[in-house]
Amino acid sequence: MKICNICHRISATGLDHIDCVEKRRIELEDADAKSRLQERLNLSKDVYDLGIEVKAILEHLTTKEKPD
Question: pTM for this structure?
Answer without folding.
Answer: 0.49
